[in-house]
Amino acid sequence: MPTLDPTVTFNDINSFDVSAGTDLLRTSGFDIPGLGFADYRLGSTSDPAAPETTYSTNTQNGRPVYFAEASISVTQVGAVGDGSTDDTAAFDAAMAVAALLGKAVYVPATNDFYLLSGEIEVPANIRVHGDGWLSRVKQTEREKNIFTLNDGCIVEGLHLEGDGLQIAVCFAKNVGIYADGVNNIRIENNFIQKCECSNIQIRNCNNVSIRGNVLFGVNWGGESAEFTAAAADVCVYSNIAGARFIDSAGYGIYITARAREVAVLENRIQGSALADIRVLNAANTTDLGWLDIANNWVRRADPNAAMIDIDFEQGTYRSRVRGNMLIGYNISGSSASSNAGIRTTRNVLGFENVFSIEITDNQIESCYFGVVHENYLQPGRHFSDYVVDRNTFKDLHTGVCLASQLADTIVPLEGNIFINVSNKVSGLLLGAPSAGVIARRDGDNIEVYDRITAPATGSPYVAGDRVVNQSGAVGQPKGWTYTTGSTWQSWGNL
After folding, report:
1. 3-class SS at 349?
2. Which CATH number fits domain 118-446: 3.30.70.100, 3.40.1350.10, 2.160.20.10, 3.40.50.720?
3. Each residue's pLDDT tens digit, 155-170
4. What is the pTM of this model?
């Protein structure tokens, strides 16, 4: 392969005549000599003379020069990675060249860090990749993100760090990887730590994949990963999968404000100061929902927050929490509802447009409550709205605890296993105005067996639902069956 003079860079190629017998060419650097060679393929003079996005440049005698590498390395445009040189300009140059040529950007391993003092905007449809742990990039400015993504971007195999300083205010701009209002992005197999606000923050985006990352040590009160959307937008079709979230000073994963169709799958989360997985809808909206929180492993380091904490506010569509392994701090810790494996709540009183939630096939251990449902169940809702089935509750004070505004709200439990649990079910919690009613399923109907001594009125029963009399008084009916005429028919005697 012919090599140009060592002082020649890519930018000098158009001053050379290259003979027809030379098809490959190597320069000593893209922009600065000696900082990384680059290989080029030369076309014939019969090719179009004007460079297109697939060309790098033309030789002086009109031969188009193609960038032969799959990626442009940041070192080819001047990045040093010695832990003292500011490499912001080189990263910006690499992004510009990649956008021009339609190539990826490569961040090679380094013995120290590539230091940045500015935010790096990744152009649309550009892949930024590295060699894993040793491809280290550090943001030195407290109010700057590391990477901001555009449509179609991929970031993978990098080690990203924030400035590592704890501060009293969580800046909106101290994020490892940030995206707002873009679509079709992937963030995979990165190690990200020491960012003040979030390691990853996704706002108003669609079709986002976050897989296989390790997110460690958000310093202040931010989130390791956040999905959210503004009032006029919806964040949909996204997943967080196969990642590790370690020692966040805030939430592990935060899904909020009109995020929809987000899957949180097969992650490992531990050491979060606040809830490990937090879902919070915006008031008076009906966009958050169709969430799938499944097969995650979570371990608490204290009893001060629920492992999965879902606040529905006033509009949440069907969501599922299934197959998770949730290990609490200990059973003797706080008796507050926050010391729970799964807590579902709402903050706003009044009518709620909550369609349903299914909590199934989870294993919950070593906390005060297994599942807490606090001030959510709308009076008059039928059992299909809230499902707690086939879970295993182990080493707990209370397995399932629920509270609602009226005592006749119905919640069925089916196929749950209780091991070393002091109270399997409880209907009262923390001074709630009244308790929900726990039931079991019977095909398409329910059988109410909890604290009932007479048929309820005004409840959303359907024909075939049964109420078992819990009074124990001899001579009273064993129970009642709801009929098609909206009346109760007694059966048997105690």
Report:
1. coil
2. 2.160.20.10
3. 999 999 987 655 544 5
4. 0.76
